[in-house]
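Exercise: predict the fold of this chain.
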Amino acid sequence: MEEVACGGGSFEDLFPFNHPDVVRAVFECKTPVVSAVGHEIDFTLVDLAAGVRAPTPSAAAEIVVPDRCELENQLRSYEKTLMNSVTDRITRERELLEVFRLRLQPKKFEQLINEEFQRLDDLFGRLNHLMNGYIERQRMSLGLLRASLAASDPKKPLERGYCIVRKNDSVVRSAADLFRDDRVEIILKDGECGAVIEDVNHGKNI
């Protein structure tokens, strides 16, 4: 699934998302596209061409990236359902064979029934082996997904002393986006604060 996003801006900033080439590219994209252009009140032609429209880029990220806890719960549910289904089926077969064994006394029938018991035991062993292998592969995939999510977490650098600066609900990516007396939000690992830009130095002291 792909995401088309823009943190907001003026009508001119969002106008490229109304361009026919951009709208056509989104419409013809083989991968499902989530549109998160501008704020919730903004609307562009890309929103109509995309498969899903999200109100904000962060909401789009929640749609594109599956919830880790939900995947883990789903995996555990599948595991439990599969185990219960296999166990119930084998229990019913055992009970049916036991009824036949009690009704049929001749040795040859008893031998056939014992063979069926052995066949069921072998079948249960193979099913259990296959099921454990499937569950282990799913757990490995989930572990890789968990590691990928942790690596792409935008708030991870905040734990190392970095911060995120936002202006008008958009992330500031360059000093060129800031001017004297601009009001900004500074996002830290454990909270936020407001600030006013007193001076902008375009790399002179870096």
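Check your answer against the key: The mean pLDDT is 77.
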